[in-house]
């Protein structure tokens, strides 16, 4: 009897612990907060953060469901595209709220990703992100997706978006929208992933307040409590 009681108690503790670790988003990406935000790891086998300094500043927290999707996506890409590397950027604060200079990123569901790039040898490399270029956000690509010795790897970008969408569905959430520069979208749609993206992912053609050429912004779709 005592043994059964101990087992039941341990299960209850585990259950409450799991519930406590689950993030809760409140409000919207433009007006919201986050409870139990989870910080992304600084790096993995095929990905890295845009800045250790910004991580220390607490700017890389997301909803727990988004966390799972991001890491599972990188794991899948490690197998399907072993020669490609990726870099994530701004996400949000641990408790959400206003996240300057962004107008969104307030409830743990917004994630910026630096565009995957190729160097002059067509090798997948990380786009340089440091204090002098505002951690990558000050980089400006031309209308073909070129910057200095780098060019956007549209195939890797497309593969990343497709995998994010598939893994999101597997985890019971979705992708609300992706913001990517309208003048560069034609190159993304010209890849082998173009048709899938057109059918399954909303990428507005209207220009936003920033160009979204050096990074693409993803808003995930997770049920949130109202303010």
Structure notes:
By secondary structure, the protein is of the alpha+beta class. It has a single domain (2-221), classed as Muramoyl-pentapeptide Carboxypeptidase, domain 2, CATH 3.30.1380.10. 31% of the residues lie in helices and 20% in strands. It contains six helices and 13 strands. The strands form four sheets. Strands 4-6-7-13-12 form a five-stranded mixed beta sheet, with helices on one face. Strands 9-8-11-10 form a four-stranded antiparallel beta sheet. It is globular and about 45 Å long. The N and C termini lie far apart (46 Å).
Write the layout of secondary structure elements.
Layout lengths: L1 H20 L2 E4 L4 E4 L2 E2 L7 E3 L2 H5 L4 E2 L1 H17 L5 E3 L21 E5 L2 E2 L5 E2 L20 E2 L2 E3 L1 H17 L3 E6 L5 H5 L4 H7 L14 E7 L6
Parallel strand pairs: 4-6
Antiparallel strand pairs: 1-2, 3-5, 6-7, 7-13, 8-9, 8-11, 10-11, 12-13
Helix pairs in contact: 3-4, 4-6
